[in-house]
């Protein structure tokens, strides 16, 4: 498996400095948070996109994916959501990223079946754009759909190879799902896995990998037993927790912890 980290852990850091961190600490790729407050977002000019893509190539670091915030199950018209996804797909294509991350974002007041159908319809439509651009759309286990069993209710009916899943190990754990069950639900569709660690179910402040309560050992064991050889991406949520320790000082230990888990699982 290859290792990456998300720029959610280094809010606002210029791309050259992100690449320097990845290179210095032995990470193969970076998940780029796509937001106007970040250096990478859909408003980038063609020249800006070309420059960032060249910087990644020059550093020998891969753009794992573009982490967008389109909420595919949210109520309302389809058009704005589809345009947001298409903007993310074009950005991913221009940067050479294979994946775009989207979120469920269903309204708790809306019937579950209706939210699932809205999301599946939108993803099915956007899948054609994704196919044309050579990018996959990945629905993250998150918010209204925290488990693999939740996510597959949307992904399954879409039935398109360009639509898959991101397994966020925190949300599946908070949803009460065992790692083996998450993998069983998502395996045919799994793009990559977001790893992290937290204090508790009540306090999701980020911790160094291995210092909290999340079942990282079990997750890596399941993936290894099944012969899965994709990406593990450390999503350290520094952006939402300003008091959290800087990610830069944790990257070596985080890499070593994941390498140890992978070695033990093998």
Based on the model shown, name its key terms.
266 residues; 17% strand; eight-stranded parallel beta barrel; 9 helices; alpha/beta
What percent of residues are in strands? 15-25%
Q: Count of helical segments?
A: 9
Count of DSSP E strands?
Answer: 8
SSE string, helix = H, strand = E? EHEHEHEHEHEHHEHEH
- Largest sheet composition: 8 strands, parallel, barrel
Cross-sheet strand order for the largest sheet: 1-2-3-4-5-6-7-8
Task: Report the mean per-residue pLDDT as an integer.
Answer: 98
List low-pLDDT spans: none
DSSP helix fraction = 40-55%
What structural class is derived from the secondary structure elements?
alpha/beta
Rounded to an integer in angstroms, the radius of gyration calculated over CA atoms is: 17 Å
N→C terminal distance? 11 Å
Shape: globular
State the gist of this model:
This protein has helices spanning 15-25, 46-59, 78-95, 112-133, 148-158, 169-174, 179-186, 216-225, 251-265; strands at 2-6, 29-33, 62-71, 99-103, 136-140, 163-168, 190-195, 231-234. By secondary structure, it is an alpha/beta fold.
